[in-house]
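Contributing: when you submit paired examples, paste them exactly as shown. First protein:
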Amino acid sequence: MTQHTDTPAFSSSIPLSIRDPLHKSIELSESEMAMLRDPAYQRLRGIKQIGFAEIPYPGATHTRYLHSIGVGAVATRMWRSLQRYLPLDPQDAAQFLRIVRAAAMLHDVGHAPLSHTTESLMPPQKDLALPSWLSDQSPERQAHHEDYSLKIILDSPISRHLEAMDVSPLSVSQLISGIRLKEDTTFHRQGIDFFPMMRQIISSEIDADRMDYLLRDAFYCGVAYGQFDLDWLLQHLTPILHNQTAYLGLRSRALFTFEDFLLSRYHMFFSVYYHHASICYQEMLQRFFQEEPDAFPLPADLDAYLRTDDAELITALRRSHNPWAQRITQHRPYIRLFEILLPSENPSLDPNDPDGPTDPNRSLSSLSLPDAPYTAALALSNSPPHTTPAAPSDVPRTTPAAPSDVPRTTPAAPSDVPHSDAHHSAFSASPERPPSHIPSIQLYSTFPKADPHTLLQTVALALQEAQIPIMQATSRWVLSRYFRQPHNSEPPIYVLDDSLQAAQPIQQYSHLYRRYAQAQSLRRIYCHPRHFEQAQRILQHITSAPRP
């Protein structure tokens, strides 16, 4: 951290800078730095950004701390790009920027251990005793991390740091929650309501949070899917004024960059956030919580909650004699046996599922062919068994290499369990006598006209009848949760057509929304390592009729 003599436009105090591998040097005022030093904020150093993603991607050990600072840096660039067109005097512009920066840096301060992974343990929202204007109408609604963020902003020393920055905690809370105090005129200047645009910087289809976490998660995971042209996107932001209200807009010449950004997030869910290894650990953790509901409660009391972090959770798991806890801490996961990408038309999917930074990888087991509603790619045991040295039967196998450049780094260990080749690259050996080192991949469909759920249920039932311990997991994601929300639930983002000088809501201007309108769902079955070979034989028997 270095000190400078020049003063940035956003503060009258001497700025400090933090080195970030993504955004390079991020400047902070002295009052902002004091807020970051607060224990409530320092706690984020102990909260991993994407939970169990470090299992398949060992580099993904980054935390909510630097992400939150990075969001503040991106929000600053967004505001300065928009400010070029705003009829604001310098004092008002500086005040709005301070509020936006504070909201951006504090939006994730309430995250639980392992981020979204443990949110299911949170108490009812009413137990947090938030102000009535922030309380949900449903008395039993479960709290989520944003509720804790608001509680920390309003009822912890963070509020005093905000006041020292000449920023009202109420203003920050409104931007983060999207709920407005009717009597508050903080966001009005010269007869214009700037709240919707400022809220969109914090939470929208093109918000600072998404821009930072996509680039940051891709960087630390070592993948290319989350990359997009941040500079071009920011340079082409523009405010749109409608009915004396300012909204976030994008110039049409940057539409393809926006669509690339949107698809980057979509593919990150596919390849990183719902990776089969991460999902397996999440499922094992949920089973631990179901069997030991009092082992790691997340308290409503703020002081007690601020003492929770990843280290405390892992310590609780290590002290437990529960078999699921031991599997997690000893890295002995169940093994993925089967997965299938369900048709996107499935009406049971909820397109408004919360973002969790959490994603499946489109592998051979989710190929779709034009002549069938689904196809499952299965590895057969035709080839001679691998000659891997024997080891205790409960040690997980190494996951084989995945197609293309998707890294698979599930912890490797010797095993006496035969390898599953369901994710080898798409080539086939000679059907007469395949060499022992080349897997035999064939496409099968026992139920060519049935719903894919029939296949899943048949496989699961057969495994259960054979008394093989299994876990089932469903991962759901959608291109845009904002696109499907009820009308007026979120302020619209507009595209300004440079040739026509007319604006249109972005979901109407871009065809990408309609092309990816349906939610996606990936179902997986995992089995106990000791029974993997038996489970493979059952799976092969169920799918033994080759497609014509």
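Second protein:
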Amino acid sequence: MKKSRYRLPVIAACVLLSLSSCKDDFLSPEQIDLVYNEVYWSSEKDAEKAVLGIYSLYRGLMVNAQMYDRGDVTTGYFNRGWNGGSSNALYLPGNFSDVSGNQKSWGSLESYANWHGFYKVIAQANMVISNMEKMSPGLFAEGRKAALLGEAYFLRALTYYHIACIWGNAPVITDAIESSSQVIDSDKLLINIPRSSDIEVVNLVLSDTEKAISMLQYGNPGTAGWGIRANKGSAQALSGYANLWMAFLKERDGQPFDAHLTAAVQSLEDVVSKGGYSLVGYTGEAAVRQLFEGQSTEAVFELNISVEQGESYRVDKGGIEFLTCKLPPLDGDASKDRASNINFVPFSKKEFIYPEYPQDIRAELFWEAWDSNYDEPFSDVSNVATDRNKVTWMTKFASFTVDPARQWNEYVAYFAEANIPVFRLTDVKLLLAEAYVKNNDPGRALPIVNEIRQRAGLDAYTGTELLKEILQQRTSELIGEGKLFFDFVRNNYFPGVSAMTPERYAQEGYYWPVSGNILTTNKEIEQTPYWNGKTTW
């Protein structure tokens, strides 16, 4: 059972993870040999270990809050604090006329332009799929070979889906890398393979997802792997996302896309009707806390974060809590609560998140100080924002456990206890509503919208712009979960002031640049067209 928000018991030091504050080491998973030379693929145990290696690499890639930065901070709804938080280059427009300047929007963030971490996950998945497919079914308990292969295909598809949404055109590789004679350098990184089109990347996602769906079974709520190991519902949710993204790409390129809308509807309907999931009632803070601590009835797929299970990290060193959460100082000195070091929501942006506040109860369930009128970051030396209790900060992930091995002068030494959602039922239902509208079936979308609104304390929707209302509900529900910017791109809809101008969107400037390290080591790779001449490298 996970610890509740702000309950601060000391736990046995033997189960804690020791994490370095060095950026290169932060949250890196246990180093796993990508070619697994010590595994002879002779038993189910070998296969299980290899699949868990994919999960470990994927989790290590994602727990640094990069999808929050890419999917939420880029909307401009969050601003960095006076002394810390996410880079403002994520949400400010670039000054590209100043050739020597450093404010070039995403072109200033080379670490986020590097896709090597994603391809390490893919290399592991490729190796697992290639070797496990050769193993005799007799080495496995009934159904286990298919289940493990299904998880591997799902994780490869999910990683390529992220790549498709972030970079668009990218290398596609499905061959296992098993010797130094193949296309890999001394660091086991992908080299000398050109970028495929975004449509080709998503085609692979859809192919892998279909294989995963065929191999996996639905899960059972309350079981050990519920929500944190992929099942058929997880793969169908990914299918829904990938088909809607493909529909967007093909419509952009003037190609037929209706079949992808139909496929998205079918996949998402199956998740809702067959997956065994149910919405969590917003009955109070405790219910919401339990939702984000993980493995709730909404958990379609999420990253497990648990001190008890040895899968956590110090929130004062990194992760989404580092960027979003005030922390109660262990010595009782409120001035050490990190109020000036985290992202906050400026007053001028709040109307875009909860336009029906104060009726909308999510503003109080997901946030502290939503009623604050601060438009500037808090600081003791600010001229206007000097009350730390008026910092509007997100509480979704504010579940912690004290580090018993902390030093005497570490006053906010906590380990994370909140899972990181990838797909949850609210997300899936609202995505289904979007698919219904785009598939010319708005009558089936409206009940979903009203179900979500009713849970939030709102009246039934009576407006005439149903798709915009769906996107509004996705914003109000999923903010902080890495989805919003990609929703806006998929629908060419950017409410509020945004760095995504119509000109940038038309030039596919919603895709990220590629880092100089990749361009230097792989001569087959060309820079993302919009970012030519617009980076600091």
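If you have annotations for the second protein, write them as plain sentences, like these:
Confidence is low (pLDDT under 50) at residues 1-37.
The radius of gyration is 23 Å.
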